[in-house]
Amino acid sequence: MTRVPTTNWAASFHYGFRDCLYPTSVEAVCEIVARSPKIKTVGSGHSFNAIADGEVGLSLSELPINPIIEGDGTQVSIGGHCTYGELALFLHRHHLAVHNLASLPHISIAGAIATATHGSGNRNGNLATAVSGLEMVSGDGRLIKVARGHADFLALVVHLGALGVITRVTLDVQPEFQVAQSVYEGLAWDKLLANLDEIMAAGYSVSVFTQWRQHAGSIWVKRTASADEWPAAIHGATRATVNRHPISGLDSQNCTEQLGQYGRWSDRLPHFKMGFTPSSGEEIQSEFHVSKEYGATAIEALLSIREKFAHLVQAAEFRTVAADELWLSPQYHRDTLSIHFTWIRDQEAVNAAVEHIEQKLSRFTALPHWGKVFTGRHIRAKYERLPEFAQLRDRMDPQRTFSNPWLEDVIFGTSEN
What whole-number distance in Å separates Cα of residue 404 and Cα of residue 54? Predict the structure, then answer.
């Protein structure tokens, strides 16, 4: 019996797939793409909009991930459908690591890089910046291999699922390292706004969680091995003595270990453990990126309208991401502060809240996370390389095999929606 995806992992977005194909080899992927008028790759289902929706799905879950260490231990080549949790287990056997992870280890590598998914850290680029090579199937069924330095490479990495099917990814790796995390509670808004840069520089990876209420919230600091003692407080926020969940009131058992205990990089950089339901499990997500230099001002702007959205927030998070050269990355040529929202599962109310947020952030040229809820209004004007990206699509998928109404409307449309 054919397994047809019906919803994303949070059951907040319902797909329109009527069929889904499960090839068992790359050759079969090429054959399917070559004969299909329309097809969309199905990954781990962690998008909250229609970017990956379609009538016929293509899942690579039956292909082996076949991980291989390359480049004298500086790279790993692996099936694109592999999750970061699976990747981490393989790399651990070779005492290796990638530079960063997102809050969830459950997501597929191919889907994460296609949408510029990220972790946090002033010096850490998004997950796509670790890509050094791609193997993908183009619209006519050809298998294409490109490496960093290729003329199209910077366009192909963050590709939104519009250019092909990623079958393998090569990532830069580094020696395995230790990370510890501690949570600091009771952060006041005035302290956050006055000291945002210093707070976000407090560790290798730093997140500030908030529910947009009277107090700003808590600082989650992830540090690599250091002889320094953990401070008792950071700008008035005091160190927690028990593990916490980012969503107030939820059990912390599915969260990665805190309390300053050092452990493997992959067991600390995500907020949630592999094998547990990430976050709350019943949610909608949005996220917007602004230039880091305007971070505090952008947060202050949203505080002025929080009555329009705070009641819908389960948790929100501020993170920093380093600049890169990838054409459709929200970090293209700018360090950013990301402003993330985990919403209750009320799509109509969330859509209205997002309208208010986008309007308030418009003067900061806020760019959305490609896989989360946003309006798409005026988005094309904010990406200077988008016309060239469209030309590349004309070459790689002239028949629009990988397109869908969302891509045509939001990314490639001729008029603003």
Answer: 6
Report the C-alpha gap between 52 and 371 in whole angstroms. 9
Q: 338 near 370, Cβ under 8 Å?
A: no
| Helices 295-303 and 347-361: angle between axes, nearest 10 degrees | 130
201-204: Cβ within 8 A, 24+ apart: 201/122, 202/234, 203/121, 204/121, 204/124, 204/179
Q: Locate all alpha helices (DSSP H) within 329-409, ordered by sequence.
A: 347-361, 386-396, 405-406
Write the CATH number of the domain with boundaries 178-368. Answer: 3.30.70.2520
68-176: CATH number: 3.30.465.10
Q: Map out the domains of the chain as residue ranges.
A: 68-176, 178-368
Question: What distance in Å separates the CA atoms of residue 151 and residue 156, rounded to the nearest whole number?
Answer: 10
Q: How far is CA 87 from CA 35, 46, 76, 109, 160, in A?
A: 32, 17, 9, 9, 22
Alpha-carbon distance values, 107 to 46, 270, 284 (Å): 7, 11, 16
| Total Cβ atoms within 10 A of residue 141 | 17
- Note the pLDDT tens digit of each residue in 156-206: 999 999 999 999 999 999 999 999 999 999 999 999 999 999 999 999 999
- For the chain, give the number of residues: 417
C-alpha 330/C-alpha 71 separation (Å) is 29
